[in-house]
């Protein structure tokens, strides 16, 4: 709509709140939640995810109007695999591979330019191997160096309808800092993670320097929807004029406990 001139800008927001324990119980009975409460993508101990809260907002506008640019939206594409006898939670390798192949053919960007890919991976037995195989066959065949891969769900759990926005937030963080945040809880790959075992894909498990401009974001959903977008980092060096301009700054404070947040808020350096 922005590109066609229907609107000048868009605020895109999503929220997920885990307020009803009955819904969590349903997901547990469905077999997609981990027994220990941790999300361990690609790891041999991984067997599900934990649901999580999230609220994320993205602001989109044409570059020529933007006073601040974190990344450029290059291209996006989606498809759906339709009816499956196994059920709506099972992904389709064929449709995921087709999506990735068609995506890079249509956008005119070589997948060899990918610096990193933020995968949907949730830690489930069915989903992780399918997505990894599709990525391997569609994007890694002509690479002579490993594709860096990771997922924010290892850090914050699966926020479901907000998970794609969380992935974008992580990618923008990597672009702004120049460091890819690590995927945690990964120690040993499962036996069906062939691309990792054979070295065509490397999971980012330590803070890693981001080299290059392009990052892909892969996201799926119940019912067979597959989505993929490509973002390009803004190479312009940001200039911060400091605190002398008297402009207010938004500071987000977060912690696992109320006590932890209070310690940060009481820090004199932060307060003044």
TrEMBL record:
InterPro entries: Ketoacyl_synth_C, Ketoacyl_synth_N, PKS_assoc, PKS_Beta-ketoAc_synthase_dom, PKS_NRPS_Biosynth_Enz, Thiolase-like. Coiled coil: none annotated. One of its GO terms (biological process) is fatty acid biosynthetic process. Residues 1-233 form the Ketosynthase family 3 (KS3) domain. PROSITE patterns: KS3_2. Keywords: Transferase. It comes from the Eukaryota. GO terms for molecular function: fatty acid synthase activity. The keyword Lyase does not apply. Transmembrane segments: none annotated. The keyword Thylakoid does not apply. Belongs to the thiolase-like superfamily. Beta-ketoacyl-ACP synthases family. This is Fatty acid synthase.
């Amino acid at each position: 709509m922005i590109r066609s001139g229907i609107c000048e800008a868009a605020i895109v927001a999503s929220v997920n709140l885990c307020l009803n324990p009955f819904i969590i119980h349903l997901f547990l009975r469905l077999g997609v939640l981990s027994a220990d409460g941790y999300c361990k993508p690609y790891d041999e101990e991984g067997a599900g995810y934990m649901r999580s809260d999230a609220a994320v907002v993205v602001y989109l506008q044409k570059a020529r109007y933007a006073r601040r640019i974190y990344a450029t939206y290059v291209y996006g594409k989606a498809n759906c695999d339709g009816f499956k006898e196994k059920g709506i939670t099972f992904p389709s390798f064929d449709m995921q591979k087709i999506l990735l192949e068609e995506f890079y053919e249509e956008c005119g960007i070589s997948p060899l330019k990918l610096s990193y890919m933020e995968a949907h991976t949730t830690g489930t037995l069915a989903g992780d191997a399918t997505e990894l195989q599709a990525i391997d066959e569609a994007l890694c065949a002509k690479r002579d160096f490993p594709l860096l891969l990771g997922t924010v769900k290892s850090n914050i759990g699966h926020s479901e309808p907000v998970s794609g926005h969380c992935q974008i937030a992580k990618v923008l963080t990597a672009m702004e800092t120049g460091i890819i945040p690590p995927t945690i809880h990964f120690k040993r790959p499962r036996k069906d993670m062939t691309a990792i075992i054979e070295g065509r894909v490397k999971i980012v498990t330590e803070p890693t320097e981001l080299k290059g401009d392009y990052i892909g974001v892969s996201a799926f959903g119940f019912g067979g929807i597959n989505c993929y977008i490509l973002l390009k980092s803004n190479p312009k060096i940001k200039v911060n004029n400091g605190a002398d301009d008297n402009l207010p700054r938004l500071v987000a404070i977060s912690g696992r406990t109320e006590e932890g947040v209070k310690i940060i808020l009481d820090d004199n350096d932060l307060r003044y």
